[in-house]
Amino acid sequence: MTKPVGFDQKILIHQLDYTAKQSRKHSKKDMYAVLDGYLRQDITGTKSRKNVTTMLMKIWYNIPQEIKQIREEILQEFNELTKDERLFVHWNMTILAYPFLKDVVKEFGRLFQIQDSVPSSTIAKRMKGNYGERRRVEVATSAVISSLKSWEIIVPSGRRSYIENEKITVSNPLLDALLLHTLFYVLESDSLYIDMILNHTLLFPFQLELHTDELRERKNEFTFHYQGIEKLIVERA
């Protein structure tokens, strides 16, 4: 069975910011028209603009049921978030929406653990191995890499290779909750080791501090317990 790709256009942060802010103001039907109008400043082609609109809606509007409550909490505070915090929120929402992007990110994260520079050809080869030798896979890989570059997550280092940018520090209990919901969903798991979360390849751009005391207060969402003396585990409630 052919695995879906979907991510076929570069997405910019200001487009994600706009979508998040407008998503609480408009119905689903109206959002498509609102985004089409906004995107005209960036994208002249009708088909490309329609594709980006669909992607933005999938990231911020057409989301899994189990993510809707935390998304609403995030949106209520969105205007108060810092630039780095908003990027972290978009990171989670995009990983939730697009498994292809998640797989590209995971590969970057894995390779950055063992080498300083990652050629785009290495990422492309791995994606073709996972998703098939299709033109659509090439286009999507390029779109993801272009997006990560525009978000300043990765930095060109010559010969179509990339290095990590400086780690982005995130310390916000509400965003911790979003992260846990994201990982439970994309990893298809009901329990996670805290130390695994902090070092997960999907989170390679970020330096995280999990506020476990605040997370313990969200009793309807998470439970915590130790395995042995030191291994703290969080479970979906």
Concise account of the structure shown:
By secondary structure, the protein is an alpha+beta fold.
Low-pLDDT regions: none
- Which outline best applies? globular
> What about the largest sheet?
3 strands, antiparallel
Approximate helicity band: 40-55%
Task: Please provide the count of β strands.
Answer: 8
- Give the terminus-to-terminus CA distance: 33 Å
How many DSSP helices? 11
Mean pLDDT: 95
Pattern of helices and strands: HHHHHHEHHEEEHEHEHEE
Descriptive account of the structure:
With 237 residues, this protein is an alpha+beta fold. It has three domains: 13-91, no CATH class; 100-164; 168-236. It has eleven helices and eight strands. The strands form three sheets. A three-stranded antiparallel beta sheet has the order 1-3-2. Strands 5-8-7 form a three-stranded antiparallel beta sheet. A two-stranded parallel sheet has the order 4-6. A hairpin with a 4-residue loop joins strand 2 and strand 3 (161-164).
Q: Which secondary structure elements does this structure contain, and how are they paired or packed?
A:
Layout: H1 13-22, H2 28-39, H3 46-60, H4 68-77, H5 83-97, H6 99-112, E1 117-119, H7 120-131, H8 135-150, E2 154-156, E3 161-164, E4 168-170, H9 173-186, E5 191-193, H10 194-198, E6 206-208, H11 212-216, E7 222-227, E8 231-236
Parallel strand pairs: 4-6
Antiparallel strand pairs: 1-3, 2-3, 5-8, 7-8
Helix pairs in contact: 1-2, 1-3, 2-3, 4-9, 5-6, 5-9, 7-8
